[in-house]
Every structure is written in structure tokens, then in C-alpha cells.
């Protein structure tokens, strides 16, 4: 009987599709796990990159501080070198002043000794000398001249004594000044030397800190490289699993179609053609059986729609034998459906306009327009501008990157694209 034949075909196809669906579910679970691993690796990679950025910033600050310390150290070195030269010059000057002071002292001492001798002589022989001078003088003028000479000698001695005292005082003042300048230079030299040692210590400490940051940056970079490798590996696994899922779906559909064709051929060869005028009881039973079968075993939307449509036609007119709609591409809707042309149950993924999804951020689509969420999808095999109805939303094909049968839906953020994951849905073409 034809009604039983159709129900048998539906049951066979539904069971085959159900088995295929379990395989798809397993693959989808693997894809979801791979995407979760990818998200975890991406989170770790973002943290590692943030650590590297922070360490690089701190290292640059220390390098700037190191440059300042180097400049300060060089300045101190030049100052110390100049002060050393000045200290040596002051030492030489102090030696010369001390030599002149010793020479002046000796000269003054000689003058002082000579003056003392004359004074002693004058006091001891003063009276006799004056009388002898008077008596021995040829004239009064000669006497006055000799007396004037004696007075000049005394005045000379007094002047020399004053000059000696002035010279000695000047040399002492100069000596004190040179000693003070030399002490100041030596004190400044000691201060600069201490400062130089301090700066040198800071340079060493800062260098150790910079080396520590370099080691930490190297370790974080290695961690980032490992995480990047994990992300790339997850991407590769996801792509492989998606291709595997697509192949499994195609194989399941082919197996369902082959099983249906085989069952149809078997039923046609074994059972006579059903005549509703001679066997109304079987028709009613078939109708009832078809209703129960649809409710219990149809796992796929296309099989359910097909069975319900067929059952409605059959129950409305039991005297006329219905014809099953043609299903040349494995779909349940014809090109005249109100939802448009049924293309098939396609694989759905998601992407956004970030650098991780597209290599660089902010790119236009392959059609030249900027993508928009809830509107733009990517799929090869159809012209740009093709409108697709997916899960009640109308999308427009504006981008490439996936083969026909795999629709990549654009989202406004990377988080939304990741949360979408991998899905399957019926796709209809509206134009």
C-alpha cells in the first residue's frame, strides 16, 4: 500500500537522520570544547600581553632613570677631575707662598740682627761716638753730615723693620687664604667623590632591576608564544572539526536518501498498489498510523513537515490518492514556499571585524561595504546581495570566506561571535 510505503520511507529516513544527528552532536561538542579551550588560551594570552606591556613600561622608566644617572655620574667625574687639578694647583701655590714666607722671615731676621747690633753699639758708645764725631770733624758742616748719616741709618732700620712686619703679615694672610681655599677644594672633592660612589651604586642597582624586568619580559613572552600556539592549534582543530561535521552531515544525508530509495524499491517490488475503493479500513488505519508515527519518531523538522503535510492532504480526501512532493535536493519545502527557496540545512558560524577574526580590524567586506550586525553574512556560491532567511532573520550575503552550505554570520563584538559557537539551521533564499 502506498500510504504504508510512504510511512516506512519516512521512518527509515528519520532513523538514519537521527543517527547522523547524534554524530553531529558529538562533533559539535568537540567544537564547543575546542572553542572553550581557545577562549581560555585567548584570555591567558591577553593577560600575558598585559603583563608584558606593564613590564616594558617599567623597564623604560628604569632605562630613562639609568640615562639620568649616567649623565650625573659623568658630570661628577668631570667635576672631580677639575677639582683634583685645582687642588694640585693650590698645593703648589701654598708651597710657593710658604717658600716666600720662609725667605722673608730669613731676610727680616738678618735685618733684625744687624739692627740690633747697631742699636746696641749706639747705646753702648753713644756719648763717645758723638764727641768723637764732633772732635774729628773738620767743620761743623762735616759734623752735621755725619750726624745726619747716623739719623738716616736709624730711620732706615726703622723702615726696614716696618717693611719686615708688613711683609710677614701679608705672607701670613696669603698663607691662610691659600690654606682655606685648599681645604675648601679638598672638602668639595671628598663630597663629589662620595656622591660619585652613591651614583655608581644606584647605577648598579638600577641595572640589576632592568635585567630582572628583561628576564620577566622574556618569560612572559615565552608564555604568550605558548598561548598563541594553543590558540592557533584550537583554530586548526575547530576548522578540522567543522569540516568533519560538514562531511558527516553530507554523508548522513546521502545515507538517508540511499536508504529511502532502497526501501521504496523494496516496497514496490513486494506489495500491490493500494486501492482506496476496496480497502477503506486500511486507509483509515494508515491515516491513524501516520499521525502516531509523526508524533513519535520524526526527529527532524523537514521530516515532520513532510509527514504532517501529507497527512492533512490524505485525511481531507481519502478517495483521492495524494502524491508526495518532489524532493530532488533533500529538502521538504518547494521553491514556491512562502519562506522562499529552501537551500538546505546549513552549518552556521560567527565572526566579527576584529584582528583575531579578520587579521586586521575595521575592514570592509569583500563586496566593498562595511559589515553590520543582524544583516551581513559570508558564503560563497551565491552572488552578493542574496537575501537568506535564517531562524526568522533576513540576512544579506555581503562577504566571502566560507564555502556554499556554510554561512558565517557577522556580529558586532568578538564575545558575541564566540558565544554563538557552531549551529545548524534551515536556510531559505528570498530573492
Characterization of this structure:
- With 431 residues, the chain is an alpha/beta fold.
- Among the domains are: 94-206; 333-431, RlpA-like domain (Barwin-like endoglucanases).
- The protein has seven helices and six strands.
- It has helices at residues 2-124, 126-136, 140-270, 280-297, 301-316, 355-358, 414-420, and strands at residues 341-351, 376-378, 387-390, 393-399, 406-410, 423-429.
- A six-stranded mixed barrel has the order 1-5-2-4-3-6.
- Strand 3 and strand 4 form a beta hairpin.
- Helix 1 (2-124) packs antiparallel against helix 3 (140-270) and helix 4 (280-297) runs antiparallel to helix 5.
- The two termini are 40 Å apart.
- This is Peptidoglycan hydrolase CwlO-like protein/3D (Asp-Asp-Asp) domain-containing protein.
- Residues 104-172 form the Peptidoglycan hydrolase PcsB coiled-coil domain.
- Residues 249-338 are annotated as: Disordered.
In short:
About 70% of the residues lie in helices and about 10% in strands. The chain is built from seven helices and six strands. A hairpin with a 2-residue loop joins strand 3 and strand 4 (about 395-400).
> Helical region count?
7
- Residue-averaged pLDDT: 76
Q: Strand share of the residues? A: 5-15%
Strand order of the largest sheet: 1-5-2-4-3-6
Radius of gyration: 58 Å
List keywords for this structure.
single chain; 431 residues; 9% strand; disordered N terminus; Peptidoglycan hydrolase CwlO-like protein/3D (Asp-Asp-Asp) domain-containing protein; PcsB_CC; signal; 3D_YorM
Amino acid at each position: 500500500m502506498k500510504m504504508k510505503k510512504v510511512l516506512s520511507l519516512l521512518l527509515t529516513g528519520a532513523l538514519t537522520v537521527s543517527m547522523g544527528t547524534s554524530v553531529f552532536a558529538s562533533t559539535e561538542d568537540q567544537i564547543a570544547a575546542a572553542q572553550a579551550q581557545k577562549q581560555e588560551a585567548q584570555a591567558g594570552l591577553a593577560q600575558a600581553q598585559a603583563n608584558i606591556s606593564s613590564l616594558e613600561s617599567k623597564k623604560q622608566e628604569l632605562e630613562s632613570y639609568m640615562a639620568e644617572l649616567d649623565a650625573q655620574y659623568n658630570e661628577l667625574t668631570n667635576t672631580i677631575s677639575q677639582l683634583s687639578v685645582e687642588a694640585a694647583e693650590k698645593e703648589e701655590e701654598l708651597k710657593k707662598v710658604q717658600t716666600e714666607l720662609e725667605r722673608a722671615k730669613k731676610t727680616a731676621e738678618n735685618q733684625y740682627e744687624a739692627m740690633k747690633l747697631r742699636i746696641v753699639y749706639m747705646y753702648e758708645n753713644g756719648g763717645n761716638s758723638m764727641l768723637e764725631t764732633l772732635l774729628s770733624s773738620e767743620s761743623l758742616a762735616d759734623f752735621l753730615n755725619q750726624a745726619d748719616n747716623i739719623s738716616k741709618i736709624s730711620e732706615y732700620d726703622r723702615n726696614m723693620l716696618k717693611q719686615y712686619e708688613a711683609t710677614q703679615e701679608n705672607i701670613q694672610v696669603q698663607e691662610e687664604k691659600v690654606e682655606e681655599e685648599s681645604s675648601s677644594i679638598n672638602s668639595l672633592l671628598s663630597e663629589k667623590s662620595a656622591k660619585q660612589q652613591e651614583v655608581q651604586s644606584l647605577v648598579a642597582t638600577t641595572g640589576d632591576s632592568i635585567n630582572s624586568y628583561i628576564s620577566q619580559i622574556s618569560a612572559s613572552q615565552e608564555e604568550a608564544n605558548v598561548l598563541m600556539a594553543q590558540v592557533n592549534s584550537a583554530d586548526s582543530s575547530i576548522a578540522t572539526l567543522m569540516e568533519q561535521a560538514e562531511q558527516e552531515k553530507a554523508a548522513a544525508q546521502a545515507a538517508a536518501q540511499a536508504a529511502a530509495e532502497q526501501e521504496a524499491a523494496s516496497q514496490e517490488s513486494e506489495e500491490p498498489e493500494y486501492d482506496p475503493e476496496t480497502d477503506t479500513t486500511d486507509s483509515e488505519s494508515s491515516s491513524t498510523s501516520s499521525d502516531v508515527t509523526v508524533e513519535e519518531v520524526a526527529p527532524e523538522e523537514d521530516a515532520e513537515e513532510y509527514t504532517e503535510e501529507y497527512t492533512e492532504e490524505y485525511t481531507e480526501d481519502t478517495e483521492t490518492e495524494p502524491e508526495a512532493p518532489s524532493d530532488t535536493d533533500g529538502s521538504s519545502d518547494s521553491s514556491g514556499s512562502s519562506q522562499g527557496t529552501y537551500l538546505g540545512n546549513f552549518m552556521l558560524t560567527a565572526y566579527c571585524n576584529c584582528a583575531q577574526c579578520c587579521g586586521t580590524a575595521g575592514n570592509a567586506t569583500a563586496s566593498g561595504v562595511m559589515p553590520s550586525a543582524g544583516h551581513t553574512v559570508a558564503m560563497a556560491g551565491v552572488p552578493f546581495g542574496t537575501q537568506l532567511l535564517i531562524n526568522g532573520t533576513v540576512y544579506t550575503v555581503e562577504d566571502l570566506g566560507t564555502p556554499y552550505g556554510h554561512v558565517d554570520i557577522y556580529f558586532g563584538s568578538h564575545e558575541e561571535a564566540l558565544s554563538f559557537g557552531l549551529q545548524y539551521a534551515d536556510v531559505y533564499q528570498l530573492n
